[in-house]
Amino acid sequence: MRILHTSDWHVGRRFNEADVLGDLGLVLDRLEEQIGEYAVDVVVVSGDLFDRAAPPAEAVRFLSERLQRLREAGPRIVLISGNHDGASRLGYGAWAAAAGGLHIITDAEQIGVPVVIDDEHGPVHFYGIPFLDPKIDRSRFAEVPDAYAELTSHERILDAAMDRVRASLATHDYPRSVVLAHCFAINAARGSVRAEDDQLGDLVTDSMRSIASGGVEVTPAVVFEPATYVALGHLHSRQRLAEHIRYPGAPLAYSFSDRGPRGSWLVELDADGLGAVQWLELPVPREMATITGTLEQLLSDPAYDELSEHWISAVLTDPVRQPHAMRRLQERFAYCVALEYRPAESGAAPVRYRDVLAGKRDEQLAAEFVPAVRGGAPASDEELELIGEAFEAIRATEVRA
């Protein structure tokens, strides 16, 4: 059996307020082609199909059409809800969709109930564990004594979910199995209170929403034993926690901190369990670049000509803010979507704020503020006169009060 593992489509998400639904469509076009090229039997999508719980109508239409196209290409589809999805909306009509080969798992009551798909070697059991919030979902595990007291972390509630899976596997004499889960898993010992910063590294990106509960958002990957393969979702870059435990990452980068290649995992199960696992690259419709310098440097340096079609994050080092900087940058870089000011170090000793204010009248401070926000142009004589009159009026009001 060949399984394509993808996740975190985030349909409806924007890239720094720029619409990227067309870009996502181009990426999924290629994923659809790969299904045919590699004779994929099952597609698993491990959560966050939508970017928000109440997606716009355009996003709903897009996802519906894409799932239909994938199903028409041949494979069965198994998907779960993630922390961005509205579980009840995504799961609406799941009972009817299952009859057509689209299996949608969004409810805790579905955990432990396998989707059974056969190949030439026999059955493979697919178990979905949708995103579980310990604060909200622990009451759904009535079989756990005093669930409110016990299931207080992601590790504990996922372990309870896996107990249902393990019980089902035992009933069926532990067949080959695939577990889909949407969570933040790391290689750590059971009972770890929290991950250290060096464990998280580059795993957390700007396009991710925290799933922390009580300050803890991670779970040790060992809770998913003894699944043959664990198809994880939530992290936006590909990760291999073990040969049989992987994240594919998001198929499209949604922030400048989303790193690494885009793609999915092609997983092959043989008669004995896990066979080969292969990375399938997906196209990147638009590359990203961060450029740094003064505004005039960024606008005139020919070295940046090759970046005209990239997503651009510009870091300006001008000592003062430049007027209309974003508009001027977008005249050269049509896809400049982020702007940050980071003045270059002057080499002078740092000046304390109280020293800047010392001995200066209000009128003088206001006059010095004008060039700081107007590209260096000082206040005119007429403006200085208006500033003086304004402060005189304020003082007169204060005296009358």
From TrEMBL:
Domain Calcineurin-like phosphoesterase: residue ranges: 1-148
Nuclease SbcCD subunit D C-terminal domain ranges (all copies): 285-369
One of the protein's GO biological processes: DNA replication
Keywords: DNA recombination, DNA replication, Endonuclease, Exonuclease, Hydrolase, Nuclease
Annotated TM spans: none
Quaternary structure (record): Heterodimer of SbcC and SbcD.
Function: SbcCD cleaves DNA hairpin structures. These structures can inhibit DNA replication and are intermediates in certain DNA recombination reactions. The complex acts as a 3'->5' double strand exonuclease that can open hairpins. It also has a 5' single-strand endonuclease activity.
Family (UniProt): Belongs to the SbcD family.
Name of protein: Nuclease SbcCD subunit D
Organismal lineage: Bacteria, Bacillati, Actinomycetota, Actinomycetes, Sporichthyales
Encoding gene (name): sbcD
